[in-house]
Amino acid sequence: MTAADELIRTYGLQEHPEGGYFRESYRAAGKTATPAGERNFSTAVYFLLKAGQVSRLHRIKSDEVWHFYAGGPLIVARLLPNGGTEETVLGPDQGAGQKFQHAVPAGCWFGAYPAPGAEFSLVGCTVAPGFDFADFELGVRAELAGEFPRAKELIEKLTN
Q1: What's the CA gap between 82 and 90, in Å, rounded?
Q2: Please, which residues have CB within 8 angstroms of residue 159's CB and are 6 or more apart in sequence?
Q3: How far apart are CA 43 and CA 77, in angstroms?
């Protein structure tokens, strides 16, 4: 059994619609009103991608903070309003510019993938106000390519 498979088993991770594996580990009891309806104050999940897997481009209606836990570096990629892209590397090597945390603002198109050579990446994602699948939208390749023509390569990598 690989280290990734052991983590999937140990933490009871399930397949996620955007790719990879996840399990919700926290959901605040308190709730708050949002334009989309009532949401928990915050939520947290474990999220794992194996080599070759991607978190497909998606957006949510809340800020999301990614936390690096184990494995190899993870690249979090975002489509910018000016049509460009931004990549942040989460990982243990601070000297190489890797970060332990990275925040993705609400409403941004983003995805992720393990860095070349990484067997897997285990991260945590904290969302506030809390995650609700009603606030989750997967990107459509043709639509994103029309809106972000300079990001064609990234869009092809992180969509079906």
Answers
A1: 24
A2: 56, 57, 139, 140, 141, 144
A3: 22
Measured CA to CA in angstroms, residue 151 lies from 45, 74, 86, 148 at distances of 28, 19, 10, 6
Contact 50, 66 (CB under 8 A): no
**pLDDT tens per residue, range 89-125:** 999 999 999 999 999 999 999 999 999 999 999 999 9
Q: Where are the domains of the chain?
A: 3-157
CATH superfamily, domain at 3-157: Jelly Rolls (2.60.120.10)
Which secondary structure element, helix H or strand E, spans residue 153, and what is its range? helix 152-157
pTM: 0.95
Q: Are 90 and 118 in contact (CB under 8 A)?
A: no
Using an 8 Å Cβ cutoff, are 56 and 158 in contact? yes
Q: Pick from 56, 49, 53, 46: which is nearest to 23 by CA?
A: 46
Handedness of CA 91, 93, 98, 100 (dihedral sign): positive
